[in-house]
Write a structure and sequence with these properties.
Layout lengths: L1 H33 L15 H13 L2 H33 L1 H14 L4 H11 L3 H26 L3 H9 L4 H39 L4 H10 L3 H29 L2
Helix pairs in contact: 2-10, 3-4, 3-6, 3-8, 3-9, 5-6, 6-8, 7-8, 8-9, 8-10, 9-10
Length: 259
């Protein structure tokens, strides 16, 4: 009985510790801003306190611009991310299962992968006729490479003995792909999807700061140019919540599909 009760209490204790850690960070932030703390290499003189940020957040929640900013960012992220999922998983399976596809596709992908999202922005503006398409392309680029590499890793690490056993039992290539390769590679694919979602938000914010008119990244950059420092932190928190929620949704869905 004691073991069962203790096991049931562990999740609540962990959530309590997590909540207290957030509260402690907010308290330290409040003290540093109120005291205008300056440590030489970092200063809180111009950093707004949490109370001021909360007021700005309430104003944004009541503003009709919130839906416009969030809606624009969500559309750009999921449009680019959806295209990256389709191409990334397809490329990953082709590279992981075919030596010819690996020789053909992997070298250019490895060449392009280290290029940061900011470096793609001028070229995307030249390629696409609208800034909207260029921002979607930036989110696509950000999500593509983590999805491809994690899919390749999952497919390439499938136990060859399972594939050989399935072939000896008369399994067709389609059945082997559906019954062995896909379930075996699923954990790596879900990991790549979660990482890709995070990089999509990172790349989107970068793109919106440069060529956007609506969106959370544009809202954050506009607050900086107007010196509304509390709004900067509000925008950062909204971005963090949207990114965390998207990644949590993908991870939860992945665990549900992989019992």
């Amino acid at each position: 009985m004691t073991t069962t009760r203790t096991a049931g209490q562990v999740p609540w204790a962990r959530w309590l510790v997590r909540g207290l850690s957030i509260v402690a960070c907010i308290v330290l932030w409040q003290l540093a801003s109120a005291l205008h703390l300056s440590l030489g290499f970092v200063t809180f003189r111009n950093v707004p306190p949490p109370t001021e940020v909360l007021q700005s957040a309430i104003v944004l929640l009541k503003s009709p611009k919130l839906l416009a900013h969030v809606g624009s960012s969500l559309w750009r992220v999921f449009a680019g991310y959806g295209a990256a999922v389709l191409l990334g998983i397809g490329f990953g399976f082709a590279i992981g299962r075919s030596r010819a596809a690996s020789d053909l596709l992997l070298p250019p992908l490895e060449l392009l992968r280290p290029i940061p999202a900011v470096a793609w922005i001028p070229l995307s503006i030249l390629i696409f006729p609208s800034s909207e398409m260029s921002m979607i392309f930036i989110t696509f680029i950000g999500a593509l490479f983590p999805i491809v590499l994690n899919t390749v890793h999952g497919v390439a690490n499938i136990d060859r003995r399972l594939v050989a056993a399935a072939r000896s039992l008369g399994g067709t290539p389609a059945a082997i792909l559906r019954e062995i390769v896909l379930p075996g590679a699923a954990p790596s694919i879900v990991t790549g999807l979660a990482i890709g979602m995070g990089t999509s938000w990172f790349c989107l914010v970068t793109a919106e700061m440069i060529s956007g008119q609506f969106g959370i990244g544009y809202y954050t950059w506009e607050a900086y140019t107007l010196q509304n420092y509390a709004d900067i932190i509000v925008g950062m928190l909204v971005i963090g919540l949207l990114g965390m929620g998207s990644s949590w949704l993908l991870t939860t869905l992945g665990h549900y599909l992989m019992p």
